[in-house]
Amino acid sequence: MNTPLKYTLNIFQTAAEFNAAAAAFIIAAAKEAVTARGRFVISLSGGQTPNGVYSLLAKSTWHEQIDWIKTFVFWSDERYVRFDDDRNNARQATSIFLSRIDIPATNIYAINVNVQPDEAAKEYENGLTAFFGNAALRFDLVLLGLGENGHTASLFQEQRCLMDSRKACEPSMLRKKKCTALPLMRP
Question: In this structure, which topology does domain 15-183 adopt according to CATH?
Answer without folding.
Answer: Rossmann fold (3.40.50)
